[in-house]
Amino acid sequence: MKLLRELAGLIIMSLSLGNIVMADGAASIMQKAHEVKRVDDQIATLSFRFIAADQSEKQAIYTMVWKNMHGKDGYDNKVIFFTDSPPEKRGIAYLGWLRPTGSDKLDDEWIYLPELRSTRRIPHRDHDHSHDDDEFGNSLISREHLEPRPPQLDDHKITGEQDFNGQPHYLISSTAKHTQHMQHSKHGGKKDSTKRINWVDKNSLRLNRIQFYDNHDKQLLDMKFEWQQQQGYWIWKGIQASKPNSNEKTLLEFSDIKINSKLKDRSFHKRSLQKGVKHIKMEER
Fold this sequence. Notes:
The structure is a single chain. By secondary structure, this protein is mainly beta. It has one domain: Lipoprotein localisation LolA/LolB/LppX (outer membrane lipoprotein receptor (LolB), chain A, Clam), CATH 2.50.20. It has 6 helices and 14 strands. Strands 1, 2, 3, 4, 5, 6, 7, 8, 9, 10, 11, 12, 13 and 14 form a 14-stranded antiparallel β-sheet that branches. The two termini are 32 Å apart.
């Protein structure tokens, strides 16, 4: 189910306060921004609002359990999403063992359907299927937009400097060296962005805004990030994605966040999908 797997890139950007090093040159800046230390694991509530062009709105709430795998067995991270709302989909759960961006290997994914009391592996041919009645049918956010991109996949150029939220930022244009790397065709992301303008805070090197463009230099999406501090880390508090010249928006809020809880690898097994997040929390006590 595409609506759950698109969540898999959402929680990767959690940054250590102690890893900031000033950099010169576009490629160096993007490399330093990418190298900041991530949290080891995270549990959080993710609340979505999907606002369509006609101002109609859908909402969805998920509990997320995520673990940084640090490349173990070829995986970048493992994640579970438990559906809390809408009520008719409560209990549906997704498990992903996810490869690094640019990997030539495929992710391993499962879905739990409570009405059938069964867990099935997600065939890769299902990844591009979405439906208007899905919560994510109106979403402007996909995995493409939120996964940290290894800087070596792109060519980078500083195009200017500008204030954002009262702070000076580098504006860095990043264009994929190979088109398929920007399109994320393997992961089923949206397939029409070929360039990003990254707004990088000059002092902290946090990425606070990304503008996406197609190969005709038409802006497709404007995405802004709100951060908060927790236990010496900067982590996402909210994300706003908007479509230029449209009322369409996707808003995401993070709450009830716990980080570095020493989640065990065994929690990220398909049997956990049926047992629920309470079972995972009990295991970690």
